[in-house]
């Protein structure tokens, strides 16, 4: 009863920010992402009769506290689906900076869902696996697929119609992402806490949700047409609207550092030089820059020249779940 799976992170081009149901992790809006090949989690799950509780190792360290609780609660969902009560040893290796705005929970829970369900004997199709993965981390449901994927918020209260669907596969379009690493510390306001505070208190939140359908329509048209300017400009504007909602929360907060603004300004200057580049930022200070392969050298040189930038990691479109 053992399996190993690898899942890649995804970067949301149309952001998920806000839940209508905290327990089932049901979003207030659809979101759309690109899976990245440069960041991933590899997880092995082994269900063993000799264990009296779950064990979780992350990067060879035995984990306790809230991260452990999230993993064991997710394993409970897998056990419930399988109708089995047996504990597991989980070993994960993260090739993602944890809790620094690089969606490590997305690749982590997608890999856990895939390895755990296979190890216990479940045979889930991609839709069912995405629906299950959502219960661990919302954005993780999109990491089941390579390339572009859309998480459909669904309408049903039980969440049965809330899962991700593929839009375009990994090899459809060679669009690239430069991850600009500014800081690797854990966030002061976690995504979950920040999201709830925004939903509950920000007067800007309703406007954010109301704007999503048009953003989705435009970016999907841009993807279909392989129109980089359209995709990039919609993604950048959507990101700025999401972060604006946090400034309206009570108490207000932001995930950005001074260097975050500096990187954003440099990306805009690249466009002034007729080098197409657009930024997007998840719930963290680090910036992701969308670009095309022919501009890679110029983009990398510009980003690495910015004081305070620790690293620039280049990614192509990534694949979906793989079993090792």
TrEMBL record:
Residues 180-297 form the Mvd1 C-terminal domain. One of its GO terms (cellular component) is cytosol. Residues 7-164 form the Diphosphomevalonate decarboxylase-like N-terminal domain. It is an enzyme of class 4 (lyase). InterPro entries: GHMP_kinase_C_sf, Mev_decarb, Mev_diP_decarb, MVD-like_N, Mvd1_C, Ribosomal_Su5_D2-typ_SF, Ribsml_uS5_D2-typ_fold_subgr. GO terms for biological process: isopentenyl diphosphate biosynthetic process, mevalonate pathway. GO terms for molecular function: ATP binding; diphosphomevalonate decarboxylase activity. Keywords: ATP-binding, Lipid biosynthesis, Lipid metabolism, Lyase, Nucleotide-binding. The keyword ATP-binding applies. Its EC number is 4.1.1.33. Belongs to the diphosphomevalonate decarboxylase family. This is diphosphomevalonate decarboxylase. It comes from Cerasibacillus quisquiliarum. The lineage of its organism: Bacteria, Bacillati, Bacillota, Bacilli, Bacillales.
């Amino acid at each position: 009863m053992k399996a190993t799976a690898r899942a890649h992170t995804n970067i949301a081009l149309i952001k998920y920010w806000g839940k209508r149901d905290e327990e089932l992790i049901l979003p207030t809006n659809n979101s759309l992402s690109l899976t990245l090949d440069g960041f991933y989690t590899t997880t092995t799950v082994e269900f063993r009769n000799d264990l009296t509780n779950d064990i979780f190792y992350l990067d060879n360290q035995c984990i306790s506290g809230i991260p452990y609780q999230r993993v064991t609660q997710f394993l409970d969902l897998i056990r419930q689906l399988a109708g089995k009560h047996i504990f597991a040893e989980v070993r994960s290796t993260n090739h993602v900076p944890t809790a620094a705005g690089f969606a490590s929970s997305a690749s982590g829970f997608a890999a856990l869902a895939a390895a755990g369900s296979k190890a216990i004997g479940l045979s889930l199709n991609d839709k069912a696996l995405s629906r299950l993965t959502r219960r661990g981390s919302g954005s993780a449901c999109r990491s089941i697929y390579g390339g572009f994927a859309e998480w459909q918020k669904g309408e049903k209260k039980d969440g049965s119609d809330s899962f991700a669907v593929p839009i375009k596969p990994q090899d459809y379009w060679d669009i690239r992402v430069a991850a600009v690493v500014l800081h690797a510390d854990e966030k002061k306001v976690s995504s979950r806490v920040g999201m709830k505070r925004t939903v509950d208190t920000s007067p800007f939140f309703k406007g954010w949700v109301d704007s999503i359908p048009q953003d989705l329509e435009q970016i999907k048209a841009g993807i279909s047409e392989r129109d980089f300017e359209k995709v990039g400009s919609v993604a950048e504007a959507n990101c700025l609207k999401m972060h604006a909602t946090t400034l309206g929360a009570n108490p207000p907060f932001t995930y950005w550092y001074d260097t975050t603004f500096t990187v954003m300004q440099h990306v805009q200057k690249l466009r002034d030089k007729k080098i197409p580049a657009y930024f997007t930022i998840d719930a963290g200070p680090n910036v992701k820059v969308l670009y095309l392969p022919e501009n890679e050298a110029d983009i990398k040189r510009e980003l690495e020249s910015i004081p305070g930038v620790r690293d620039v990691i280049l990614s192509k479109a990534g694949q979906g779940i793989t079993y090792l």
